[in-house]
């Protein structure tokens, strides 16, 4: 397959048209979404497909299509659906001498994360915390390196109008999320309650990109470093900025650039307005939710993001 051809073709579409192409490639009918913003929130699920070592949380009502996107759309991802998770299953099985899912896939999704149970929560939290920070961890004498992202889709209690009952979203998640240092390793949060419940008429009707082709392209985009360079050139970072916040915003913005503007190869190929509206501002918002949840756990920690700006 030609990644260059895919990039070149994107240049012939407006941003609205390209968003619809992506929605169709996810096998849904774009005309059934209420707004461009709703479509963009839906597309954020693809960030783990396209950006290495990105870690996200999405909480949403049941029936919004989480399981299909993360469990069926791509052969490069692996989804755990409830049940019990062990360190061997995730990272490395010392008895079988085999690598776990994180070492073998582009991303791992823990579907219904609120129902996940861990064989040894402290052991797994320690291994995960190291991995989420550095992209490696150790099991015994074995070091596991990977670029796999971690996606945590789950359900929480909602009101009748599909809004969270509590401002503390982490209360319904496994206990380890009550550790602010652990939660800080996640780059962003997807507000799945703004997404529609999937109905029969939302399934694709008409042309679409072949799913295997599309997800292969997304996997190929993971190794393209030019997008991070563009983001670094366009985002101004004050010297006193928190490193994790800065890294998170840049990582999300880079992923959105790959998804929405794959034809961009330099700062001259995209307007600052488009970069700000479709990459930078959503990244700040997604990281801002994590920052506020951390503040609720540990009020002594700042709830505000650094004063990052588009140059």
Overview of this structure, please?
- There is one protein chain.
- The chain is α/β, with parallel strands linked by helices.
- It has one domain (3-197, 208-310): Rossmann fold.
- 40% of the residues lie in helices and 14% in strands.
- It has helices spanning 3-10, 15-25, 36-43, 47-50, 66-71, 87-90, 121-134, 180-183, 211-221, 226-234, 243-260, 272-297, and strands at residues 55-59, 77-81, 84-85, 92-93, 98-99, 107-111, 117-118, 136-139, 142-145, 149-154, 188-191, 235-236, 309-310.
- A 5-stranded parallel sheet has the order 2-6-10-1-11. A two-stranded parallel sheet has the order 3-7. The chain has a two-stranded antiparallel sheet with strand order 4-5.
- Strand 8 and strand 9 (142-145) form a beta hairpin.
- It starts with a helix and ends with a strand.
């Amino acid at each position: 397959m030609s990644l260059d051809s895919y990039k070149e073709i994107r240049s012939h579409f407006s941003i609205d048209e390209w968003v619809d192409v992506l929605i169709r490639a996810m096998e849904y009918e774009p005309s059934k979404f209420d707004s461009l913003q709703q479509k963009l929130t839906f597309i954020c699920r693809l960030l783990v497909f396209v950006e290495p070592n990105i870690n996200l949380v999405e909480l949403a009502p049941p029936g919004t299509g989480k399981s299909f996107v993360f469990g069926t759309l791509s052969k490069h991802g692996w989804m755990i659906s409830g049940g019990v998770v062990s360190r061997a299953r995730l990272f490395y099985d010392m008895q079988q001498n085999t690598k776990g899912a994180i070492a073998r896939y582009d991303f791992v999704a823990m579907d219904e994360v609120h129902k996940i149970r861990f064989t040894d929560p402290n052991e797994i939290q320690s291994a995960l915390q190291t991995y989420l920070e550095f992209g490696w961890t150790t099991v015994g004498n074995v070091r596991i390196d990977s670029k796999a992202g971690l996606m945590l889709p789950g359900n929480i209690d909602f009101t009748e109008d599909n809004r969270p009952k509590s401002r503390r979203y982490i209360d319904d998640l496994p206990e380890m999320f009550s550790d602010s240092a652990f939660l800080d390793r996640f780059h962003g949060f997807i507000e799945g309650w703004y997404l529609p419940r999937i109905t029969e008429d939302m399934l694709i009707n008409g042309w679409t990109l072949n799913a295997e082709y599309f997800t292969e392209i997304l996997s190929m985009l993971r190794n393209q470093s030019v997008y991070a360079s563009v983001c670094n050139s366009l985002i101004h970072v004050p010297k006193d900025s928190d490193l994790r916040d800065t890294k998170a915003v840049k990582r999300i913005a880079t992923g959105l650039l790959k998804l929405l503007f794959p034809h961009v190869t330099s700062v001259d190929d995209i307007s600052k307005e488009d970069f700000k509206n479709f990459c930078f501002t959503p990244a700040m918002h997604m990281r801002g939710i994590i920052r506020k949840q951390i503040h609720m756990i540990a009020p002594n920690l700042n709830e505000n993001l650094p004063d990052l700006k588009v140059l």
